[in-house]
Every structure is written in C-alpha cells, then in structure tokens.
Amino acid sequence: MQLVLKAWFIFQKDLKQEFKTRYSINAILLFAIVTLVTVSFSIGTFAASAEIKSSLLWIILFFAAMSGLAHIFVREEEKHTADTLKLVAQPMSIFLGKFLFNFILLIVLEIITLPLFFAVMNFSVEGVTVLLSVLLIGSIGLSAGATMIAAIIAKASAKGALFTVLSFPILLPVLIAGISGTKIAVYESTFKAAGAELQMLFAYAVVVITAALLLFDFVWKE
Amino acid sequence: MKYDMQIIVRSLGKNFGAQKVFKNLNFELSDGQSLAITGPNGSGKTTLVRILCTLIRPSEGAVQYYDNGSVIKLEDVYSYIGLVGPYLELYEELTALENLRFFARMRGIKDAFNRSMNLLQRLGLDGRGDDPVKNYSSGMRQRLKYVFALLHEPHVLILDEPTSNLDVQGVNTVYGIMTEQKKDKILILATNDQADVKYGDQQIAVGP
C-alpha cells in the first residue's frame, strides 16, 4: 500500500512539474501534429488503404511517444534530482510513479491525435470499442517499456537517439499487435475478432511491468 | 523513540573501471559519534559518502546499518539518512514548500507543514517558502538542502562539503546543527575545511 501511495505522490510531483514546464506534452503533441499533417499532405486523404492508415496511426503514436517519454528520467538526471529522489523512495515506487505519468501522457496524446487522425486521414472504423481497447492496452505496454528504457538511457550522452534505437526492438511487439488490432477494428466490431491481438498486448504489458518491477533496482542504482 | 543505531564498514573499496578510488576502509560508528572524512580533491570522499547513503554500490566490502542490533535492509536505509551534498538538488520548478511537502509525504512525516516552517525559519529562509527554487541563490539552495535533510529528523546526518556557499550566519547555523546531531545521533561529514573537520570526533583519510 505504501508502495502505491508513494508512486502516486511521485506521479503528482511529476504532473505538477509538467504543468509548470510543459516540456513533454509540448514535445509529443507538436511531433504528432506535424507528422500527421506531413503524412496527410504527402499521401492525400483518399489514397491510402485502411491497412496503411492503421500502420500510420501507430507509427505516429510510437515516434511521438519517443520524443517525450524519455524526459521523465532524463529530467531527473540532468537537473541532478535523481539522487534526491533515491533518498526518499524505493525504486519500485519510482518506477510505478513514472510509468503512470508516461501512461497518462500517452493517453492525452491519443485523445488529441485520434480525432485529428480520423478527420485529416478520412479514417473510419467499425469497431470503435475494439480500437479503443487496442489503444488502451497497447499504451500500457508502450509506456511501461518506454519508462524502463528511459531509466536505462538517462545517464547516457546521446539520450534521444539511444532511446529510440533501444525502444524499437523492445516495443516492436506492441507496434505489430497494435497495427494488426487496429486493422481488424476497421472491419470488425466484435472483441472476438481482435482477441489474439488484445491477448498479445495484455500479455506484453504484464510481462514488461513484471520484469521492470524486478529489474528496476539494478537499472536505477549505479 | 529510543534508537541504538550503528554503522559498520568492512573492507570497503570502490573502483571505476580500472581506476581504484579507495580500498580496504574499515570503521564503526554508533549513537553520539561523529566522523570527518578528509582527503585531497578526487580522493573519493564524495564516492564514499554516496556509498554510505546507498546511492551507489561498493566494488568490494560492505556497509551495514543496525537498528537496536538488527540489520536494516539496504532498501530501507535511506529512511534513516539525511544528506546534504553539492550534487543533490531539489526540484527547481517547484517552490520550496512544494518540494518540502513532496518529501514529507514521501517520508510519511506528520505535521510536515509546521516542521517545514520551523526549519525554514531556522535556516534563515522564512518568508521565502513560496518562491520557486530556481529563483534561489546558491547559498539559499544550500540552506534549503539542510531543511530537506533535517525534515524527517534523520538518525544519520551526512554532510558533503557542509559549509560551501554559505555566509557566516549560515555557517554558524550549520555548526549548531552539527553540534546538536552529534550529541545523541550519528554525524558524518566529508570536508577539507579544517574548521569543519573539528566537528568529527574520528577522522578518516581516503585515497587510493
């Protein structure tokens, strides 16, 4: 209980910092909107198939997330507050708090990007709840994986490039299952049709969160 | 609350790659004792402090904390320690009171607001609690680090360069804190300033 409560306090602290600086939210939203506009201009509104549009949605979400999710740990290292945080919390609370912040950030990104994507790309789906479920469970896995990798790269010098390069192979299962689930949601409105993808995304999230909770202490402490 | 705190350091060594920072350090500290860690620049004083605070792991040997004869688990040691050091910063986007509120909640401190206000006053920061830390001078930041370190009434107070950036009044306040701490708790300071060193009843010089 203490663990969860402390994670909640860390989340609140990060949220307060984000409200004051708006660094991460600006980075990911600007990236997502610029990419979306560029893609819509380059392929045209009706030229791409639903399959290609599904892939584009996840590519935009993935790279937008890459532009902002690492900041949660990079900020602590660059501002020399990482040691201060280590002195008031156990590693597990820190991971959970940071993971929650990145998850909420990703959800905000999706709330803003998704309607824009539907409008600009002339995208429509049969299974709205299926799509939302794929995005929700995918976001849990994506933010958990990204949070863990952010902690690994926070001490490195070329953080930005390293984050994307390291994240890509680790987060690839989320991308593949997310794209596949979104494609299914275009034509099908039942959860049964996207059952395998949802199971895959859920299993990935469980595995990554469990591994992160077990390994975070070794990553976080020198 | 009655404590019987003890720190035992055995055969402690630290390497960064092939570079040996120090080796085979041994000492013991219990309630009412203080230790001054000295040594030239780059000798490993800060590295030793960071190992004592469990911020980094030693390459060899071990540091063990005991509370009433029972070993304190390594992941719980942080709750017994108050640390002030030049590499330790508070959240500069937040105000001093927002910082202190966060740390108090994390440490489960009751009556945190009154404690924070009293400590801010003691460190000469009364009336500045609502200012963002980014607007603080280096001396004020150093004073605020003391408020952070003392907020949970730590049983072990570890000070790395305790009087850096402080004016005469600030230095005197810090000496008062050190004197109070070493009465019945543990004080460790890492310094080269001879005026600070005399607050350590024991001395240890580090180096390769």
Description:
With 222 residues, chain A is an all-alpha fold. Chain A has one domain. Chain A is 83% helix and 0% strand. Chain A has 9 helices and no strands. In chain A, helix 7 runs parallel beside helix 9. The two termini of chain A are 27 Å apart. The mean pLDDT of chain A is 90. With 208 residues, chain B is an alpha/beta fold. Chain B has one domain: Rossmann fold. In chain B, the strands form 2 sheets. In chain B, strands 6-7-8-3-9 form a 5-stranded parallel beta sheet, with helices on both faces. A 4-stranded antiparallel beta sheet of chain B has the order 2-1-4-5, with helices on one face. In chain B, a hairpin with a 2-residue loop joins strand 1 and strand 2. The longest helix of chain B has 17 residues. Chain B starts with a strand and ends with a strand. Classes of the chains: A mainly alpha (222), B alpha/beta (208).
In a nutshell, what does this entry contain?
The complex is a heterodimer of chains A (222) and B (208). With 222 residues, chain A is mainly alpha-helical.
How is this fold's topology laid out?
The complex is a heterodimer of chains A (222) and B (208).
Chain A: H1 2-21, H2 23-43, H3 50-68, H4 71-78, H5 82-86, H6 91-120, H7 128-153, H8 159-187, H9 195-220
Helix pairs in contact in A: 1-6, 2-3, 2-6, 3-6, 3-8, 4-7, 6-7, 6-9, 7-8, 7-9, 8-9
Chain B: E1 5-16, E2 19-30, E3 34-38, H1 45-52, E4 60-67, E5 70-71, E6 81-84, H2 96-107, H3 112-122, H4 138-150, E7 156-160, H5 168-184, E8 186-190, H6 194-197, E9 202-205
Parallel strand pairs in B: 3-8, 3-9, 6-7, 7-8
Antiparallel strand pairs in B: 1-2, 1-4, 4-5
